[in-house]
Specification:
Structural class: alpha/beta
Number of helices: 10
Radius of gyration: 20 Å
Helix content: 25-40%
Number of strands: 16
CATH superfamily of the largest domain: Medium-chain alcohol dehydrogenases, catalytic domain
Shape: globular
Largest sheet: 7 strands, mixed
């Protein structure tokens, strides 16, 4: 089967390789992939020269179920995290597979398993976002940012979002964006405090990085929570005002799946299925797929992501 890999020497190189079709383990599903979502982190440089198979989330049809699998069979339409998802076939772990809602297209379903699970962790599991609370999302035009807006509205929260593009912010208003901040700078404190009647926001999603961290802390309400999910600005360090952290009783947390155990991931998927899959099934949440590229055009898809031309998700569709 065909599968995309990336290797890095002095610069990253995409390679389309012919590899053996994988076989599912006892608690795995072999899936004929129809679409896979792009995620910025996997396309960054820093991999070894031997290369790594690309792709982290996808949707497709079950071809074969492992010996200990119950509840799924060949022909089922599924979506889930998937190692090497930029391939014709992929293997999904049983504890990370979700049935694909009939209302979703293949491209929309492929945008859910990683992106929306990260947002669920950020807003629900750790962020405890409640109806009526304020959410601030810096970098709201990203895949994670748009998903955070959509999930927050289902939870009944009010959302402030920043982006350097007025056009992208305008396109997000029909999705329920309450306050738009057209900026890439750390200059939004006054606007946030005005919108929240001086109280500040209850939860912050930082998808930008260290350049906005200090300003975000200034914007937080008493007992506010702060989620760090990305650092596209490349700024890995930021000033932390300990007095603000102390007096405001703030909670700071990171959002990453890299070190989570199988059991922790399984609990998150089960919670997402119970809490959010109904909203995907009935149309309250519709993943925003901005651009779709054919399997042969992965290089163009990566270039589009690198140029920040998209709003929401970029998706790759498989041959056939």
């Amino acid at each position: 089967m065909q599968s995309y890999w990336m290797k890095t020497d002095n610069e990253s190189t995409l390679e389309l390789r012919e590899v053996a079709r994988p076989e599912p383990g006892p608690r795995q599903l072999l899936v004929r992939l129809h679409a896979a979502g792009l995620n910025r982190g996997e396309l960054l440089t820093g991999l070894s020269s031997t290369g790594k198979a690309l792709g982290m989330e996808g949707a497709g049809v079950v071809v074969k179920a492992g010996a200990d699998v119950a509840g799924f069979q060949p022909g089922d339409r599924v979506m889930g995290r998937c190692v090497a998802a930029f391939s014709e076939f992929g293997v999904m772990e049983l504890h990370e597979v979700m049935r694909m809602p009939a209302a979703l297209s293949w491209e929309e379903a492929a945008s859910v398993p990683l992106t929306f699970m990260v947002v669920y962790d950020m807003l629900v599991e750790q962020g405890r976002l409640a109806a009526g609370e304020w959410l601030l999302v810096n970098g709201i035009s990203s895949g994670v940012g748009v998903a955070a807006l959509q999930m927050a509205k289902v939870l009944g929260a009010r959302v402030i979002g920043s982006s350097g593009s007025a056009g992208k912010l305008a396109r997000l208003q029909p999705l329920g964006l309450d306050v738009s901040l057209c900026t890439r700078k750390a200059d939004f404190f006054e606007a946030v405090m005005q919108a929240t009647s001086g109280k500040g926001v209850n939860l912050v999603v930082n998808a930008v990085g260290g350049s906005v961290f200090a300003e975000e802390l200034r914007c937080m309400a008493f007992e506010g929570r702060h989620a760090t999910v990305g650092y596209v600005d490349g700024q890995m360090k930021a000033e932390l005002n300990l007095e603000t952290l102390h007096m405001q009783r703030l909670r700071l947390f990171g959002v990453s799946n890299k070190l989570r155990t199988r059991e922790q991931r399984a609990r998150s998927v089960a919670g997402f299925i119970a809490d959010m899959l109904p909203a995907l099934a009935d149309g309250r949440i519709r993943p925003l797929v901005d651009k779709v590229f054919a399997f042969s055009d992965l290089a163009a898809a990566k270039a589009c992501m690198d140029a920040n031309q998209h709003l929401g998700k970029i998706v790759l569709t498989m041959p056939g």
